[in-house]
Amino acid sequence: MDEQRAELARIAPDLLGPAAERKIEPKGLPDLPNVQAWPKVVMRLAPFPSGPLHVGNSRMVILNDYYVRRYAGELILVFDDTIGSEDKVLEPDAYDLIPQGLDYLGVKCDRTIYKSDRLELFYKYARDLIQKSLAYVCTCNAETWRKENKAKGIPCACRNTSPEENIRRWEKMLDGTYSAKAAAVRLKTGMDLPDPALRDHVILRVSETEHPRVGSRYRVWPLLEFSWGIDDHELGISHIIRGKDLVKEGKIEELVWNMYSWKHPELIYYGRLKFEDATLSKSKSRREVKIGTYSGWDDPRTWSMQSLAKRGIDPNALKKVMLDLGLSLADISISMKAVYSENRKLKDTEAPRLFFVEFPVWLNLTRVPADVVKAEAPVHPDFPERGFREIPLTRKARKLIVGIQGTDYEHIEEGGIFRMKDFANFTLQKTPTPGALFHSREVERIREAGAPIIQWVPKEAAVPVEMTLVDGKKITGLAEPAISRIPVGTFVQFERVGFGRVFEADPSIRVAFAHK
RNA sequence: GCCCCGGUGGUGUAGUCCGGCCCAGCAUUGGGGACUUUCGCUCCCCCGACCCGGGUUCGAAUCCCGGCCGGGGCACCA
Question: Can you give the distance from the CA of residue A229 to the C1' of nucleotide B10 in angstroms?
Fold first, then answer.
């Protein structure tokens, strides 16, 4: 290699220079294509309001927001609230839940638009396309059309009817003569297209379903590919970043743009994203929230932005992970561990430390010097200036009892030495009424022995705490008294247990577990 | 059946367009260690990858051809 390079330097030195100086693309996300062709980068978020934003949807939001900021562009929130279908149902609450999720992510939209306000616009274009014979009203049975026409690439009789006849049929769709399924508008994309998925796709159809915003004012609704074919142009969208589940729709959009000779927004797709440790199902979440098996839209099992906020997940942790995925078209499967790792880095320094014991085994302590009436533990080990939490050691009927984690009790052998963190060293007595014998106070003794240092709670002052786990299960445990002075909303660390956020203090303390 | 898209360590990603700065970088996970009165944070170390086969070339993760494997579309859903 070096020899070759030397040889090249000898025979053609000028070839080396430019190569060496060639601009290396910055690491990270690529530039947006063809930016110079647009007066301004304009992008859009187009959620279907069927529920709150969840971790899966967040990729779309984060990516679009990132690029809009990078190019100082404009971001439009467009509720893609066409009528949907039997399994894609509009959820009225989503109109509030989605903006809440955007707030959590720190995403600001320049304006908000509702697809359901724009039906007349789509009708205008539909009529125009029909008049130009670029679209037709098809009254064939959907299933037979699929089998006999689409699959075989054979046009149906409706395709060749006159524009006048088609306008008459169009009026019948609007006035209710045609009921749902009886007729639909097809775009003349071409029956001879090699890809059957694209052949004369339906762009508007009849639905009698009531809409949460506009009620039953409209009975003809556009499909995504058509409404966006129009709106991406009408709204001046320059760049579209979305999942590759929409590439077929993108192709149909392009056909619409071509029919009107409109400039094409740049289409950028990314692959499917799965989480190894999170099952994302809006319809299931919706069901469970409705019947009350989930605590609400902030239940951890929904994986909604609300649920992450409740658990104290920093939105920047999610953003970091999502941006790290880039714009690859490959389907990927990642773990929430990546988000948790970022979150720990971001929030470890702020989290006050506390002791929490889930299934306490009560130990009767003996030979603790009488002058020991409290223990002091740092609020945060790396920041002594934040002070200490006091853990009172109150005797009752001359007994001093503390609780340790059942698993710790199991793991420490009879007579084994261990340390109750920030308190003292003991030897364990696995007698019928478990106890522990005071051994010493110095932590050095434990270090030398390599013995465990565990968390504990005093029986007399322990505070009951309910903790919601990631799987929705609620466990009840006891925390040290200092937790009573922790404000609601604080991200805390239960030492040796994990991080969580106090989301309620009255009437009792409740914590949402975040991660280890 | 017809169409489309992917394939770099366990996971994700950079590099691929414009072949040599790549015996492949980064992050995370896992393992080990330092620090530490937490199984946290921080720091250090280690394990670990270009799907396969041809071809072009002085040189291929990168270009060409052929396979293999995987994902997806073919809804009057978004």
Answer: 42
- The distance (Å) linking the CA of A345 with the C1' of B43 is 14
Same domain, A42 and A147: no
Q: Which nucleotides of B are covered by protein (CB under 7 A)?
A: 1-8, 10-18, 20-21, 25, 27-29, 36-42, 58, 70-78
Determine which helix (DSSP H) or strand (DSSP E) holds A382, and give its type and residue range. Answer: none
Same domain, A420 and A471: yes
Beta strands in A211-359 (DSSP E): 220-222, 239-243, 266-270, 273-275, 332-334, 353-354, 356-357
| Residue A16 to residue A3: CA distance in whole angstroms | 14
Q: What is the distance in angstroms measured between the alpha-carbon CA of A28 and the sugar C1' of B36?
A: 35
pLDDT, tens digit, 9 for 90 and up, residues A31-62:
999 999 999 999 999 999 999 999 999 999 99
User: Domain boundary residue among A186, A219, A252?
Assistant: A219
Structural domain contains residue A21: no
Is A366 within the bounds of a domain?
Answer: yes
Which nucleotide lies closest to A493 by the C1' atom and the CA atom? B40
- Residue A4 lies inside a defined structural domain of this protein: no
pLDDT at A8: 35
Using the CA of A86, which nucleotide's C1' is the nearest one?
Answer: B77
Mean pLDDT of the region A71-100:
96
Nucleotide in closest CA–C1' contact with A447: B37
Domain count along chain A: 3
H/E element, A341: helix A336-347
> According to the model, what pLDDT value does residue A24 have?
30
Q: Are A358 and A491 members of one domain?
A: yes
Residue nearest to nucleotide B35 (CA to C1'): A382
**What does pLDDT average to over chain A?**
92
pLDDT digits (tens, 9 = 90+) for A502-515: 999 999 999 999 99
Average pLDDT over residues A284-313: 96
User: Could you tell me the two tokens for A103?
Assistant: 């707030």
What average pLDDT does range A250-264 have in this prediction? 96
From the CA of A376 to the C1' of B45: give the distance in Å. 36
How high is the ipTM of this complex?
Answer: 0.93
Other Cβ atoms less than 10 A from the Cβ of A406: the count is: 13
Last residue of a domain, one of A173, A192, A219: A219
Tell me, yes or no, whether A241 and A341 share the same domain: yes
CA→C1' distance for A115 and B45 (Å): 56
Among residues A265, A225, A235, the alpha carbon closest in space to that of A111 is found at A235
Q: Give me the helices (H) in A415-466, please.
A: 443-449
pLDDT in tens, A88-103: 999 999 999 999 999 9
Residue A30 CA and nucleotide B14 C1' are separated, in Å, by 11
User: Looking at the structure, do residues A204 and A287 belong to the same domain, yes or no?
Assistant: no
Domain limits at A195?
131-219
| pLDDT confidence of residue A449 | 86
Q: Is residue A18 part of a domain?
A: no
Q: Which two tokens stand for residue A54?
A: 């969840």
CATH number for the domain spanning A410: value is: 2.40.240.10
Helix (H), strand (E) counts: chain A: 15, 27
